[in-house]
Amino acid sequence: MSKADLKPERKTRLGVVAIVALLHLVVIAALVRAFTPQFAASVLDGVTQAFTVTVKPAPAPEPTETPPPEPVPPEEEGAAAPPGKKARPRETAAPKAPIAIKPTQAPPVAGKGDENASGARDEGEGTGASGEGHGTGSGNGGSGQGGGAVTPPVKIRGDINSAKDYPRGSRDLRIGSEVIVALTVGTDGRVKGCRVVKQSPDPSAGQITCRLAAERFRFRPAQDASGRPVESVYGWRQRWFYRDSGVTPREFGRAS
Known about the structure:
Blueprint: H1 3-35, H2 37-50, E1 139-141, E2 154-157, H3 171-174, E3 178-185, E4 191-198, H4 203-216, E5 218-220, E6 222-223, E7 229-230, E8 232-239, H5 249-252
Antiparallel strand pairs: 1-8, 2-5, 3-4, 3-8, 6-7
Helix pairs in contact: 1-2
């Protein structure tokens, strides 16, 4: 036989031998594991320990320092303003002594009207200057001098003698009361101003009296020593009462 024919047979034999040896090893391992399990476990542990790798934990990273912030360059400041002017104190003078002002006194009233003697109310409120019905009461005038007047003013026209001039709803407040006003008479004989000196319980009576006096009254103005007209003050009293049919109208308007 040639050498070429022997090579396949040798390879076949070697393979059979390897298989038989492997089978023997398997059988032996099975017997050892069955009868001596501790030995098998120790052998397995020894084999595995040979391949155990201990992994150390990575070291913690070292803390990094935060770099400090960059310094901010200071802002440029403006140029200083020029010095201001030196203030000079203003000269002050001592305050003048206050001038004492005397209180204004009410002008004198020349006369006053009489109140109703009986107070009867059945026939309504009377004036003493008209017949039955709703009246206002009697008014009488007086004079006051001012501004160097020698001749006082004289009322030459106008009167307040109608109850219709005043509100009827506040009649009971006015009955038995009076209003005194100070009229400023100009050089033209007209009323330039009016001030209530004495008010009645009816708050509207004083204002109405001033308005009616300015609209209706006319005067001969006051005169100074040279006969020239001057401004003056004239006092007027307006009274209210109930008319009594037993008293004559003249008694209602009589001046004392």
